[in-house]
Amino acid sequence: MLRSFRLRPLAASIAPLAGLGLAVMAPVSRAADANPAVGLSLQVAPLAKAVGQPPRAGSAALARDLSVLRWIQTSRDPQQVRHAWTYLDRVPTAFEPAIGSDLSKTAPRIKAGVPAFVKVVETVKDQLKESIARPRPFLSHADLKPCLPLERSKSYPSGHATWYTATSLLLADLLPQRRERLLAVGEQGVAARVTCGVHYPSDVEAGQRLAAAGVAQILASDQWQRFKASVQEEVKALMVPPPAGLPLLFD
Fold first, then answer.
1. Which residues pair with 25 in a beta bridge?
2. CA 123 to chain centre
3. Looking at the predicted structure, is the pLDDT value of residue 29 above 80?
4. Is 187 within 8 Å of 172 (Cβ atoms)?
5. How far apart are CA 105 and CA 99, in angstroms?
6. Residue-by-residue DSSP string for 111-173
7. Residue 22 above 80 pLDDT?
8. Minimal CA–CA distance to 228: which of 103, 115, 110, 118?
9. 24 has which bridge partners?
10. Does position 217 have pLDDT exceeding 80, yes or no?
11. Is there a contact between 126 and 20 (Cβ–Cβ < 8 Å)?
12. Range list of β-strands (E), the chain
């Protein structure tokens, strides 16, 4: 039985996109407590290089994209579709089963702070999406029938793949004891976009590359290091599992 779309390892970067600025700044807030990423800038050129360009019309890479989508469309079952719906929203609580604790009650600063850092990467993603302007697969190929709500935004790189990968990597840096579980949940959030036909495989792979490159810059920043030091009490609290142990994760 098909469990989920299996992602390729994060690949080497392709050619950078022209005409992009040198850096993207995090939105300025009144205090770092309101936005721990305030003042953080990401260098856009290496992120654009990591993302590269989508497969060209008539290429073997596009044929591979379409063959994967068509095969999954005929193979997915109701359990997989229901599972994909659990990743429709981009929310930190999706990672609670991997952590084994309640973020809202146990770690509110982590729950609010990690998305602030991810937002800086998403700003770059939005620029790239508009610059590349790849249509969604179901808009270009009428035989593809998504099993998630239709979206009309551009397709490359995938926003969900960017968000779930970046969030999983940042949480894994805070909670290294849960790293494998966190990355597994992140991969499931990515794979759901292909399972339900709202993205090409190459879209989500590009989102993974963007997230990995963006997180590498974030982890080296003063803003992240200050935030990480400030939430260590929450980290300790999150490491207390339920009495029955950690829940199983869908694979």
1. 41
2. 13
3. no
4. no
5. 13
6. HHHHHHHHHHHHHHHHHHHHHH-PPPHHHH-TT---SS----S--SS-HHHHHHHHHHHHHHH
7. no
8. 110
9. 42
10. yes
11. no
12. 23-25, 41-43
Q: Alpha-carbon distance 168 to 163, whole Å?
A: 8
For residue 182, what are the contacts with CB-CB under 8 A and spacing of at least 6?
95, 98, 99, 168, 171, 172, 175
pLDDT beyond 70 at 129: yes
Using only the alpha carbons of the chain, give its radius of gyration.
18
* pLDDT for 56 beyond 70: yes
As beta bridge partners, residue 197 has none
Which residue is it, tokens 């949940």? 185
Q: Could you tell me the pLDDT band of residue 24, with boundaries at 50, 70 and 90?
A: low
DSSP letter for 47, please.
H
| Residues pairing with 41 in the sheet | 25
For the chain, domains (ranges, CATH) are 23-50+69-238 (1.20.144.10)
Residue 33 pLDDT class (50, 70, 90 cuts): low
User: Which among 250, 236, 247 is positioned nearest to 106, based on CA atoms?
Assistant: 236
Residue 185: is its pLDDT beyond 90?
Answer: yes
Q: What is the mean pLDDT of residues 205-221?
A: 98
